[in-house]
Design a protein that fits this description.
Elements (H helix, E strand, L loop, with lengths): L1 H31 L6 H18 L4 H24 L7 H23 L15 E3 L2 E3 L1 H23 L1 H11 L1 H6 L4 H27 L8 H12 L4 H21 L1 H4 L3 H16 L14
Antiparallel strand pairs: 1-2
Helix pairs in contact: 1-5, 1-6, 1-8, 1-9, 1-10, 2-3, 2-4, 2-8, 3-8, 5-6, 5-8, 6-8, 9-10, 9-12, 10-12
C-alpha cells in the first residue's frame, strides 16, 4: 500500500506539471485552431535560461525564474511575429508544419549552445525528505506541486474574468465578431503565444529541478499531447484534469507493470489511454463537439 501511495503522490506532482504544460497547447489551439508542435522545445528553453542565470550570473532562483519568464515571453512574441503571423490566412496544416520545423530549429540551437549532457540545478529546495503517512515526499516535489496549483488557479481566474482573458476567449470563439467589437486579433495572438511560452518554461524549470536538464526534456511535448487530446483540445479544464489522470496512471503503470515487461510501458501508457478514451468520446472528456481534428 505504501508503494502505491508513493507512486500516486509522484504521479499527482508530475501530472500537475503535465496539466500546466498542456495549457500552452490549449491556448494556441483555441486561438488559431492549430497544434504547436514546438511546445516541447518551449519547455526545454526555460530551464536552460534559468540555469544560466543561476550558475553564470549568481542570480537567486526566484529572480532567475522571473528572468526566464521574460525571455520566454519574448520568444513567444518572436515566434508569433516571424512564424505564425505570415501564415495567418494559410491552411491550418501549414501552421502545424511550421511549428514542427520550429521545433527542430530550437532543438538544434539548444544542442549547439548547451550540448547533450544532463545538467543539474543548484540546490533550490531543502534536501531533507518529508514523511507523510508513510509516504516519502521530497520538498522539490511538494513545492513544485504547490507552485503549479497556484499557477493553475491564477490562470483559470485570468482566463475567465480578466479583460485580456475574455478577449482571448472571444477571439477563439469568433474572430469576425471580436474584430467588429474593436479587438485586435493580432495582439491577442501575440499575447497568447507569449503566455503559452511562459507556461511551458515554468513547467520545464520545475521538471529540471526534479530530474535535471537535458535536451531529452523536449519529449514532454509528445507526452503532453495525449493529455491535451484526452481532455479535449479546446478545454482548459480538460488539460488540467487530463494532466492529473495521465500523470497518475503513467507512474502507477511504471511502478507495477514496467518490471513485468522489462520497461518501456510507462512511456506508451498515455497513448493507449487516449486511444480507448477517444473510441468512447471522440472529442475528449471536455472537448467541444464542433472542433475540427487535425
Amino acid at each position: 500500500m505504501t508503494f502505491f501511495l508513493q507512486m500516486l503522490s509522484n504521479g499527482i506532482v508530475v501530472g500537475s506539471i503535465y496539466g500546466l504544460v498542456a495549457l500552452g497547447f490549449v491556448l494556441i489551439y483555441r486561438s488559431s485552431g492549430a497544434l504547436n508542435l514546438a511546445n516541447g522545445e518551449f519547455v526545454l528553453f526555460g530551464p536552460y535560461i534559468c540555469l544560466v542565470l543561476m550558475t553564470s550570473y549568481n542570480v537567486p532562483f526566484y529572480l532567475a525564474l522571473l528572468g526566464t519568464l521574460v525571455v520566454s515571453a519574448i520568444l513567444g512574441l518572436v515566434v508569433e511575429r516571424l512564424v505564425v503571423r505570415p501564415l495567418q490566412h494559410a491552411p491550418t496544416i501549414s501552421v502545424i508544419m511550421a511549428t514542427l520545423g520550429l521545433a527542430s530549429l530550437l532543438a538544434g540551437v539548444v544542442h549547439m549552445i548547451w550540448g547533450h549532457s544532463t545538467k543539474t540545478f543548484p540546490q533550490v529546495f531543502p534536501p531533507t525528505p518529508l514523511k507523510l503517512g508513510g509516504v516519502i515526499v521530497t520538498p522539490v516535489y511538494l513545492w513544485s506541486f504547490v507552485i503549479v496549483i497556484v499557477l493553475l488557479i491564477i490562470f483559470t481566474v485570468f482566463f475567465k474574468y480578466s479583460k485580456m482573458g475574455l478577449a482571448m476567449r472571444a477571439v477563439a470563439d469568433d474572430q469576425q465578431a471580436a474584430l467588429s467589437m474593436g479587438m485586435s486579433v493580432k495582439f491577442v495572438y501575440a499575447v497568447t503565444w507569449s503566455i503559452a511560452a511562459m507556461v511551458a518554461a515554468i513547467g520545464g524549470v520545475l521538471l529540471g529541478n526534479i530530474s535535471g536538464v537535458s535536451p531529452n526534456m523536449a519529449t514532454i511535448g509528445l507526452t503532453v499531447l495525449p493529455v491535451v487530446i484526452l481532455g479535449g483540445l479546446d478545454s482548459v479544464l480538460g488539460a488540467i484534469v487530463g494532466g492529473f489522470l495521465i500523470g497518475v496512471i503513467q507512474n502507477i503503470a511504471g511502478g507495477y507493470l514496467d518490471p513485468l515487461v522489462g520497461g518501456g510501458l510507462k512511456e506508451v501508457v498515455p497513448f493507449i489511454i487516449v486511444l480507448f478514451i477517444l473510441m468512447l468520446k471522440p472529442y475528449g472528456l471536455f472537448g467541444s463537439k464542433g472542433i475540427e481534428r487535425v
